[in-house]
Amino acid sequence: xxxxxxxxxxxxxxxxxxxxxxxxxxxxxxxxxxxxxxxxxxxxxxxxxxxxxxxxxxxxxxxxxxxxxxxxxxxxxxxxxxxxxxxxxxxxxxxxxxxxxxxxxxxxxxxxxxxxxxxxxxxxxxxxxxxxxxxxxxxxxxxxxxxxxxxxxxxxxxxxxxxxxxxxxxxxxxxxxxxxxxxxxxxxxxxxxxxxxxxxxxxxxxxxxxxxxxxxxxxxxxxxxxxxxxxxxxxxxxxxxxxxxxxxxxxxxxxxxxxxxxxxxxxxxxxxxxxxxxxxxxxxxxxxxxxxxxxxxxxxxxxxxxxxxxxxxxxxxxxxxxxxxxxxxxxxxxxxxxxxxxxxxxxxxxxxxxxxxxxxxxxxxxxxxxxxxxxxxxxxxxxxxxxxxxxxxxxxxxxxxxxxxxxxxxxxxxxxxxxxxxxxxxxxxxxxxxxxxxxxxxxxxxxxxxxxxxxxxxxxxxxxxxxxxxxxxxxxxxxxxxxxxxxxxxxxxxxxxxxxxxxxxxxxxxxxxxxxxxxxxxxxxxxxxxxxxxxxxxxxxxxxxxxxxxxxxxxxxxxxxxxxxxxxxxxxxxxxxxxxxxxxxxxxxxxxxxxxxxxxxxxxxxxxxxxxxxxxxxxxxxxxxxxxxxxxxxxxxxxxxxxxxxxxxxxxxxxxxxxxxxxxxxxxxxxxxxxxxxxxxxxxxxxxxxxxxxxxxxxxxxxxx
Length: 705
What we know:
Structural class: alpha+beta
Radius of gyration: 37 Å
Shape: elongated
């Protein structure tokens, strides 16, 4: 580095004693000065041929960084030896810093070959005249050589080696390469190395734009990084900064008035934390590809900066020990645009290190829209179909109740879904079939977890299964996309969606659900008919959910305790829905509705075809035998294209028990109930028939997919 401190003369005496030296001593110093001027060239010529090649492997090591879609830093990671050394291109540095750096450290940086002969002559002449070292002759290239190949002892041989290495570095890397190494390796105190890490640590932002005072401070610190650390010795840092400003003004690099004004700016007294946006997503990206230096994610840093405080505030307002999570998906591309994994990554009281976007939790009523979608798709119902919400028993003992313990009577399917009524949802689930419902969710890519791998039953309609926030968000994005479920993209370089995507619903059924959910009453102080959304509350008040979407984005929110403990009063509509609506507001722009397909049937209940005006209820045993499910001519997606298809639920109405089911004329099941299940062995058209004890029969033709 620059040597501007007074030193001793060659004979070990002080400057005052050196002033009265004899003519012989003066000639001796002159000879030494001439030797000093000639030594670099002679040494370089010899050392170039004798020194081994300089290993830059360690010098090229950088901190792993995670960037957003625009290149904004989300989170850096320390190097293996605990250093903060961030990659930096000189082109992205404030030009004022570079001007101050060369003015203070190496005025002829762009002109010399690594060692500055004029600086050597000046230093030698000052030594000859004063009898002591007045200034050094170290160039930026020589400083880089010392940083790349540290030498403990300060000796003539070490200096000559440094000169040879500096010339070699310039020949190998060029001026910009040497400058890049300096900007990466310059010490700034403690584990902070390089301009970018120092700028973030001491002035709190990237070095692309620096005030004059900030630039001068960052130029001065590497001269004595430990003695001038602003977080420990702010006064020493201020004096060093002001010397840089004085020199810059004296050399005409900056106007004197600007330099004086910059001196009035305070020096930072503490070290700032490095950015930690999307901490969980960044951690996951690095764990997935540990050898990668730069990770570019699909996230939006500005959205992360808006949403992370919102999630933390909402969790804190609900109660102690709670966490929260939020996910934003671009419906068109499947890109994850924001991911907040907890209410605070460093908040141990809320288990903040756990990424709750990937935790398996009970969704409560949040899956009801997909039951309705399958019922709409199968022709069992329409949004304006009348359905009964009355005390009902399914099987021997299952008698679901609504959340408020009341019943609405006869309502439309639209109203039943908007109010999240339980009996209509279970009634439709019975018609659709729990096994087929689970198969549809899994074929769409959702990792559904059933209790102890039990067979799916009607309680899955009300949340009797496990799913992650990420998978739930994907399914809702599928509704917004007309039924095709996107593959979540988290990296910018990840491949685009496959040509054939899984489907959660047909386009018309998906729009029926989207249009219905857009009319769901919003939480307090929110405007209606802006986004389509659904809430959910799991059994025991363990989880509160809210998932909403418009044409462009899907946002999914969750609140609860990471340990799964219940929280009295934790209700999706009260806790999660406000978070959802606030998050949508912070994305900016006006929500856009999902476009309506051409063949969607928009009609009142009275104008519907007669079979769709009211949901058909199970008939008594003396009524005519008929197959209620699957309907004749239906196309049923059981995941046959991906492998062994899921089981198909069979349901009959009327007739005299027991019933015998046949597929292709071959008996497949006999039951004393009006429900059974058949396991297809592949895709294709099949004829399904049923016979009752009295000899009555009914048949349908369906296509298994």
